[in-house]
Design a protein that fits this description.
By secondary structure, the chain is α+β, with helices and mostly antiparallel strands. Helices cover 20% and strands 31% of the residues. It has a six-stranded mixed beta sheet with strand order 4-7-8-9-10-11, sandwiched between helices. It is globular, with a radius of gyration of 17 Å.
Length: 194
């Protein structure tokens, strides 16, 4: 089943009124329902990532960390409207990327420095690869794709393909985003209550 809804011109106001209970994105100027089933592990990985990154970002005044739900207007054309709007599972925005006059009740006008996707069992590979390509095309510095079942993190760095693949035994050093931070990949999958 095709989940694309065709419209002539999509405005920021249209994006702001998308159904809150669905993951509605704009892909090549078309509204697309990218809602996937996110289970416990999906949410747990995002929380673990937030617990690791947020204290470092806050302590060093590096920027803002966001969990699921922030819409990024990656590309808007004055004539054609919003052409690309995405919602990563987790993101990081440097302070210098935030426009001074931006109304913070609206979707973010630009891209994050880091976008993270946690792959759900129902997620289509084509949709995932399209999202990675969109973020990198519009200047996101890094995109991390986390595969819970394999316990892998694929790190895409702008202008540096293919991705680097980290397994549970590896440590991710992210000096360019978070100085002095090393993330043990296994820590993303740890459940403190097991």
């Amino acid at each position: 089943m095709d989940n694309t809804i065709i419209r002539s011109k999509i405005t920021i106001e249209d994006v702001m009124h998308f159904d809150e209970d669905k993951r509605i994105e704009v892909v090549n100027g078309e509204i697309k329902d990218n809602t996937v089933t996110a289970g416990f592990m999906h949410a747990h990985i995002i929380e673990n990532l937030r617990d690791i990154i947020k204290p470092v970002a806050r302590k060093n005044k590096l920027g803002h960390v966001f969990g699921d739900g922030l819409t990024y207007i990656l590309y808007e054309d004055k004539e054609e409207g919003v052409r690309d709007a995405r919602i990563p599972d987790f993101s990081f925005v440097r302070p210098n990327l935030i426009p001074k006059d931006w109304d913070r009740s609206r979707p973010f006008p630009g891209c994050p420095a880091l976008a993270v996707e946690v792959v759900s069992p129902t997620e289509k590979t084509a949709d995932l690869m399209g999202k990675i390509a969109s973020f990198l095309r519009y200047d996101t510095e890094q995109v991390w794709v986390i595969y819970p079942q394999k316990q892998e993190l694929h790190q895409y760095v702008k202008d540096n393909l293919p991705p680097r693949i980290y397994t549970a035994q590896d440590t991710l050093i992210v000096e360019t985003l978070f100085p002095e931070l090393e993330i043990k990949i296994a820590s993303l999958f740890v459940d403190d209550y097991e």
